[in-house]
Amino acid sequence: MNPHEVNTVRALLAEPQQAVIIPHKNPDGDAMGSCLGLYHFLTKLGHNARVVAPNDYPKFLKWMPGNNSVLIYEKQHTEAQALLDKATLVFTLDFNELGRVGPQMEAALKQVTAPMVMIDHHQAPASYAKVTYSDTSMSSTCEMVYRFIESIGSTSIIGEDIANCLYAGIVTDTGSFKFPSTSSDTHRIAAELIDKGARNAEIHNKIFDTNTANRLHLLGCALKNMVIREEMNTAYITLSQEELDMYQYKKGDTEGFVNYGLTLDGIKFAVIFIENREEGIIKISFRSVGEFSVNEFARNYFNGGGHKNAAGGRSERSMEETITYFESLLEKHKMELTS
User: Fold this and answer.
1) For the chain, which ranges sit under pLDDT 70?
2) pTM to 2 decimal places
3) Where is the DHHA1 domain (predicted)?
4) How far apart are CA 64 and CA 70, in angstroms?
């Protein structure tokens, strides 16, 4: 954060605030970890803070301290809207464009008169916030929240609850510290969080080692469906609504499936297409290694975006039409994918 941003936030927090903290729709570990970490921090400073998530999130994230206080806008609309109506300060975390909360909550946020503070590490931030703390070089929004706490106060205030939440977000968004965005500073912050009470082994177990038989069978189905285009250095997976239903899909069950394509020797570009019949879309996750920007690919063709090597998007075509379109795009980008 630059000095002006730091001074602005300090001024905002100089008086008790009714703060609402918001993650993106379908929040992941970084979104919930950063929101709950900030929630505990603001509460320690004497502010009345609450996390309002647009919709529900996976069970393997619900162990985080403070989870029981989270409101789900989709399910608890009246109570959540009342908090937004009386908010004096709003934090938006792990997203940088209001459309990422879904149309219903986006409309509500556009009516909010309270100043907003954005903390996010994705590319191309919008300009809706009074304070925009954006840094695409950071591994995660949780790493940024640590820096935020460091900038406006002191990390001495970080206790076990904050440490566990922030560590959880860092470990998920770095792929257990293997993604290129993981820096030496990321490791130093993770070490500091462990020193302050983060139970690293327990966190890994709760996030990554809580599979159900149905999830493992769904993974088997996904891997069986994988198409490998060696001549394009590309692998992609499809999962239909029927296949999801067959294995009693629950939110979060496909987390990480897209990364399996990148474990294949020579593959630079991995994609998963997941049908969501209720919303009438194909949800898409993109991953890459090297210089191929999936952020640009998702923005240009699939109404999405994210990071250079990890992004998301959507298609309103059928699965068959989406795959046909995607295959045509591979031909268009063949030189980038094969060079």
Assistant:
1) none
2) 0.91
3) 249-328
4) 11
